[in-house]
Amino acid sequence: MADGPRTGADAVLMHLRQTAAVPSGHEVVDGALRLVVALARATVGGADGASVSLHRHGRLLTVAATDRTVYEMDAGQYLTGQGPCLSASTEGRWFYSASLEDEVRWPAFVPRARGLGINAVLSNPLVTQDQPVGALNLYSRSPQAFTDADRRLAALIAAESSTVLSEAGITASDDRLALRLTHALQARQVIAQAQGVIMERHGIDPDAAYHHLLDFSRSSHLTLLRRAGDVVASSQHRRTVVGPVPDGAA
Amino acid sequence: MTMADTELTLALTTQLSEVARALFAAGDVSSTLQTVVDLATVTIEGCDYASVFVEHPAAIASDPLVARLDELQQRIGQGPCIDTLRSGQSVYVEDLAADPHWPQFGPEAAESGIRCLLVLPLSATGTFGVLNLAASFPAAYGATDRAKGVIFATLAELALTGAQTHEEEDRRADNLHQALVTRELIGRAEGILMERERITSTQAFDILRRASQHLNVKLKEVAEELVETGERPRTGPNDPARRGR
Amino acid sequence: MSAPADTVLDRARQNAGLSHGELYLRYFELGGMSSAFQVEAIVYELAEASPHDYDVLAHALNERFVELGGDHPVPYASEP
After folding, report:
1. How far is the C-alpha of A57 from the C-alpha of A45, rounded, in Å?
2. Which residues of A touch B165 (CB under 8 A)?
3. What predicted TM-score, i.e. pTM, was given to this entire model?
C-alpha cells in the first residue's frame, strides 16, 4: 500500500499508548517530572508547593505534585476552566499573580485557591515544538512571594523541563493524533474490504485491486477512502448479471 | 536564597537536564548503562571511576578498576555494594583504608587504588541494581556531590526503566506490524465475500468465524486461503450458503 | 480502571492467560474497530458491545483457548 505497513504499525503503537491498555513511556516521563517539581519546590524561594500539568487524553492533568493542596489547586482550575495553570498551558506564556486577594482575573478560580490558603501563584508554560503542552506551577501561602530572581529561576526550570519533554517525544499533536489515528485505522480496513470487492468483481490480485482504487479515486477526484466506501456499498446492491443461464432454465 | 545558592541551583538544573537528555536518548539497556557510567564521572566532581550493576537482565558497565572491586566483593562475600543491593540503602565510605565495616574488603580495595566509595541503590518497585561512584582520594565527595549522586541515580533509574520499556516497545511494534498485515488480509477476505454473496462485512466475518470454528484453524488462515484460491470456506456440514447451489 | 466485578469475558480472559493488551492485539488483528480502552470497558461490562464487536472478542478468546488445547468455550452473540 502507499504508506507502508511500518508507518501503520507505528501509528497503531501510538494509538494504543493513548488508550492506555499498553504501558507507555509515561511512567518514565512522569518520574522525571516528579523530580522537577521537587527541585522547583526546594529551590525557588517563596514556593510552598509545585506541580506539573500536561495535556493528556484530551484533558489537562496533574502528572506531578509536591502535596495534596497542590493537586486541589490544579483540580480547581480544571473544574472552573480558569486559572494561571490553564492560561499558561493554553496560551504558551507565563502568568503570575502576586496577591490573589487583589486579583481580578480568574474570578471563579481565585476564591477556591484562597480557600486552600494560597495567596500567590506562578505558572510557566511547558513548550515542545513551539506548542504549549502543559505548565509548571508554583504556589505560595504568602502574597508577593516570588521575587524577580525567583521568577527567572522558575522560568529556567520550565524551559529545561520542556527540553526533557521534547526528548521524550511529548508533543501537543500527540493528543489530537490519537483521534486521527483511530479514524485512519478504520479507514485502512474499509480500503482493505474494497480491495477484496474489486478482486472478486474483476478477478485481479490485491495489488492490482489497490491500483484500481487509486486510479479511480484520482480520476474522479474523490478521496481514496471515499472511493473505497462507495465500492464497499456497491457490493451490497443486486445487479442484473448477464452471463450463464441459471440451472433449471430452458 | 543566597547568590551562591542560586548559581549552584542554576548549574545543577542545567546539568540535570543535560544528563536527563543524554540518558533518555541512549536507547537500549546496555547503551544506557554505558551512558550512566560515562556521565557519572563527568557530572560528579571527585568521582574518578563509576560502575552500574543491574540484576535483571544481568548487565554491567564499568571501569575495569571498579569491576575488580565488584569481583572482590563477590569473592569474599562482603562489601558495600552487596549491602546496598540487599538493604536498598545508600552507603558512603569516606576512607576504605580505615573503615571498620569491611575488614577484608576495605584494605584490599584501598590497595588497588580506591579510597572512597559512594554506593547508591537503583530502585523501581524494589532494588534492581546499584550505582558505584569510586574515588582515588578519601573523603572525595562533599554534601553537594552526594546530593548530585542521589539525583543522578534517580535519573539512571528512570532511564533504565525507559530503556527496558523501549526494548519491550520495539518487540511490541513488531507484533503490531504483523497484526496490521493480518487484519488487512482479513478485510480483503471479507470484501471478497461481500461482493460474491451480497452481504455486509459483519456477515462476512461470521462466515469466516464459523469456518474457523468448523475447520479448527485460525480465522486468518481461512482468510488467507480464500484470498489466495478464491474458494469459499466450509462453515459446517450443513453450510447454509451451499444449499441450493 | 479499578478492580471490577467478575464478568464472563474477564474470567475467560484470565483463564486464557491474556493481559488486556494481549487480548486487544488479538481483537485488533481480527479486524476489531473499537479502541483498547473501549474493549477493556466491554470486558468489564462497563460498556455495551455491538453483537459483532462481542463476537470478535469472543473469537479472539476462543482462538487462544484452542492454542492451549481447548475448544471454543466462549459463546457468540450471533448464536442464540
Report:
1. 33
2. 23, 25, 27-28
3. 0.53
